Amino acid sequence: MPNSEIELAALVGSRICHDLISPIGAVNNGLELLSMAGDGSTAEMELIDESVCSASARIRFFRVAFGVAGNQTIGVSEAKGILDDYHQTTRWDVIWTLAEAQQRPDIRMCFLALLCMETGMPYGGTVTVRSSGSKWVLTGQAEKLNIDAELWSVLATGQSAIKLRPSQVQFGLLPIIAREAGKQVTSQILENEITLSF
User: Fold this and answer.
1) Whole-number average pLDDT of the chain
2) Do 112 and 187 have their domain in common?
3) Full DSSP string of 122-184
4) Which phi and psi angles does 84 have, rounded to 5°?
5) Among the four 25, 66, 79, 159, which has the fewest Cβ within 10 Å?
6) Cβ atoms 140, 197 nearer than 8 A
7) Mind listing the pLDDT tens digit for each residue in 106-145?
8) Alpha carbon distance 119, 114 (integer Å)
9) Are residues 172 and 121 in the same domain?
10) First-to-last C-alpha distance (Å) of the chain
């Protein structure tokens, strides 16, 4: 049995992502075959291909963020590849400054933190990811922020005075997972900048 409700939720996340990635991969393979055969409108094929690539990128990102962390490491090229694919059609850019492979649990917390940053930067922006020893620091810069103070307070306390919506689940998960790892999530919000560390 899982050791905690969080671990059980992570198993559910992993199962969903695992089961969805195969049919999406099959659709992508089908598109490649149609492309080689010369069937279908180019515009239609491009639209379907873009949607399939976006869905695949999201599943890969969510599998790390919401799935079981385990004790594996994730290499620099894999982490950057997931982020580049995930943000390809979004308004956000992520600058990954880490030069070495990282433990999957740390990258899981980083990906959850990125989802928090996106919530506070709904109009787009740039997030720089750094680490110093065991401490991770994400700095987001945007022309305009949209900060819900009650929502952001959840990161520091792990307790929510408001009912979280599905799109806000990362705010509930990150402090719990960080606490289990012996870390504390802190955030600082300025006029055009968010700093989130753990």
Assistant:
1) 86
2) yes
3) TT-EEEEEEEETTEEEEEEE-S-----HHHHHHHHHS--SSPPPGGGHHHHHHHHHHHHTT--
4) -60, -45
5) 159
6) no
7) 999 999 999 999 999 999 999 999 998 899 999 999 999 9
8) 9
9) yes
10) 28
- Note the pTM of the prediction, 2 decimals: 0.85
Extract the tokens encoding 90.
Answer: 């979004």
Q: 41: domain CATH number? A: 1.10.287
What is the enclosing helix (H) or strand (E) of 102?
Answer: strand 102-103
Give me the phi and psi of 141, to 5 degrees please: -125, 135
Domain limits at 135?
A: 91-198
Sheet holding 92-96, edge to edge: 92-96, 125-132, 135-141, 193-197, 186-189
* C-beta atoms surrounding 119 within 10 Å: 18
Q: Both 42 and 109 in a single domain?
A: no
Of the pLDDT bands very low, low, confident and very high (cuts 50, 70, 90), residue 1 is: very low
